[in-house]
Design brief:
Elements (H helix, E strand, L loop, with lengths): L7 H5 L8 E4 L2 E10 L6 E3 L4 E9 L2 E11 L4 H4 L15 E9 L9 H4 L1 E13 L8 E8 H8 L6 H4 L10 H4 L1 E2 H12 L6 E6 L5 E2 L9 H10 L10 E5 L7 E5 H6 L12 E7 L34 E2 L2 E4 L3 H7 L5 E5 L4 E5 L5 H11 L11 E2 L5 H4 L7 E5 L7 H18 L2 E8 L9 E6 L9 H4 L1 E13 L2 E10 L1 E2 L11
Parallel strand pairs: 10-13, 14-15, 14-22, 17-20
Antiparallel strand pairs: 1-2, 2-3, 2-6, 4-5, 4-23, 5-8, 6-7, 7-8, 9-11, 12-13, 16-21, 17-18, 19-25, 21-24, 22-23, 23-24
Helix pairs in contact: 7-8, 11-13
Length: about 500
């Protein structure tokens, strides 16, 4: 089905006869896009008028965002719809609701909503009138992002960890008594200050191991406060960094999850994909189609049909072309190095230096324990965390400095964020990277793992130890363009199936 350019009369009469069903690649979907300006009747934007729609998910930035390009021939949408004029408010309160659902015409498959559906609320934050030869071919592009994100950016309020706890005589208490665990502070900010009382996934919420006494500066929005608290968060167990994200695209509860818990659920047995390995992909064969598969697979694989774990489909799981890059040398030499943390306490008048926990070989051991030991390897997965003697002899170091006015900040946990925390995060997010395009499906999302293997000969290529295996998905774009639906997927990988023999006894 192709998108036709509507005329003004069509635009005036579609609001009550929108058919949301669309077929892409042999799969049927229901897609509904509704505009609401809170002043006139909500307007269902017809699928036939949408020329392009993109929804982007990013593991490192929780708000969903995207854009829509729609045909607006003769500016028919704004002129008249069933005698009810449509207009944009232009105050970041124009809302878009997008619902996408997989449909089985024969009703034989029950697709779990939390995996396969989207029900997302957005705010239009910008728009573009696309230049066309004449008004007959008018097109408009609207940019949108998460409604909650916009509402929290607009709110500037007085908030403190002291008032959040409703402490009596807070002015007379010590800063330590007015401090909160960072995870608790983030939860209070979202529920009490932002007003999202029922939007915390309690079962996947990390309270943190370090405390903070925080008062919102006058110019800060709730988003600014949230980012400040997240930047200082260290998990309540294992001194790990955490990811702030949505649980799924239907319930939309916030989660604060230590990164190691993602890897705990990836799966490390050859025949037992973990709950977070959502899909198994294969590179298209570059040799003879008659040869066998990579032997053994570098990612857990199970033959069972599933719609939640290790999903497999011949049409949807082919990687035809991809971009792959190793960790950049400049990133490695600047981030995977010892980060001694120097600090000065104004209260106590003394200097401190934390070195042992932030020393690079110590952090690499933690990296193995937290991440690579929990994925599939040949006996044990090998971390892609290359060192050399310049690093291990402490010639190349990146010192960090902080000072504190209060006793609560003079703790090892607070200082670990600047040292070990930064190294772990860089070792994950700046590591081996892959990007590829697939036939589109709604089950793809961030914070999950995909297993990637190769349909090729059973020769054991060393390169397959790096490029094949379990990848953590960090970015997904859902792209609907005319009669096509594709996903652009980005992912990172921190391990090899076994040791490729990189020598580290060099300067």
């Amino acid at each position: 089905m192709s998108f036709a350019n509507p005329n003004v009369n069509e635009l005036q009469n579609v609001a009550d006869r929108v058919d949301g069903e669309r077929q892409f690649g042999g799969q049927m979907f229901e897609i509904f896009v509704t505009l609401d300006n809170h002043s006139s009747k909500p307007y269902p934007l017809p699928n036939a008028h949408i020329l392009e729609m993109v929804i982007e998910e990013n593991l490192m930035d929780w708000p969903y965002r995207g854009y829509i390009i729609y045909s607006n021939k003769n500016e028919g949408i704004e002129r008249n719809i069933n005698n009810d004029a449509w207009f944009y408010r232009m105050d970041a309160r124009d809302e878009i609701n997008i619902k996408v659902k997989v449909v089985d015409p024969k009703n034989k498959v029950n697709f779990p909503r939390e995996v396969w559906e989207m029900d997302l609320d957005f705010i239009v934050y910008d728009m573009e009138d696309i230049l066309v030869p004449n008004i007959t071919n008018k097109m408009k592009k609207i940019y949108f992002w998460d409604k909650r994100y916009q509402m929290m950016m607009d709110k500037k309020l007085y908030w403190s960890t002291a008032t959040a706890q409703k402490l009596k005589n807070a002015a007379y208490l010590t800063d330590m008594e007015r401090a909160m665990l960072t995870g608790d502070a983030i939860e209070k900010l979202l529920t009490d200050a932002a007003g999202y009382e029922n939007s915390i996934d309690k079962e996947n919420w990390d309270r943190g191991s370090n405390k903070i006494f925080y008062t919102s500066p006058m110019h800060n929005s709730i988003v600014d406060d949230l980012n400040e608290l997240l930047s200082g968060h260290l998990s309540e167990t294992k001194d790990d960094m955490a990811i702030f994200k949505y649980s799924n695209r239907v319930d939309k509860q916030w989660q604060l999850v230590p990164i190691h818990k993602l890897f705990d659920a990836a799966g490390k047995s050859a025949d037992a994909p973990g709950n977070l390995q959502i899909e198994h992909l294969f590179f298209e064969n570059i040799e003879n189609d008659s040869v066998g598969d990579t032997s053994p697979y570098r990612a857990p694989y199970k033959e069972d049909l599933s719609y939640t774990v290790d999903i497999k489909s011949a049409e949807y799981n082919k990687i035809a072309t991809y971009e792959y890059v190793d960790m950049a040398g400049v990133d490695n030499t600047n981030t995977l190095v010892s980060k001694p943390v120097y600090s000065y306490s104004l209260k106590n008048g003394n200097f401190l230096m934390d070195y042992e926990a932030n020393e690079i070989e110590s952090v690499r051991n933690d990296f193995k324990t937290l991440y690579t030991n929990n994925v599939l390897g040949d006996g044990e997965a090998f971390p892609m965390f290359t060192l050399n003697q310049t690093k291990t002899n402490q010639i190349n170091t990146q010192p960090e400095f902080t000072f504190s006015k209060v006793s609560y900040a003079d703790t090892k946990q607070n200082r670990l964020v600047l040292g070990k925390g930064k190294i772990l995060y860089a070792g994950l997010m700046l590591n081996a990277f892959i990007k590829f395009r697939l036939l589109g499906s709604t089950h793809r999302t961030v914070g999950k793992f995909v297993g990637i293997d190769r349909k090729t000969t059973d020769v054991k290529y060393k390169f397959d130890n790096k490029i094949c295996g379990q990848w953590l998905v960090t970015n997904v774009k859902h792209i609907w363009n005319h009669n096509r639906y594709v996903n652009d997927v980005c992912a990172v990988k921190v391990h090899m199936y076994n040791d490729n023999g990189v020598k580290e006894d060099i300067e």
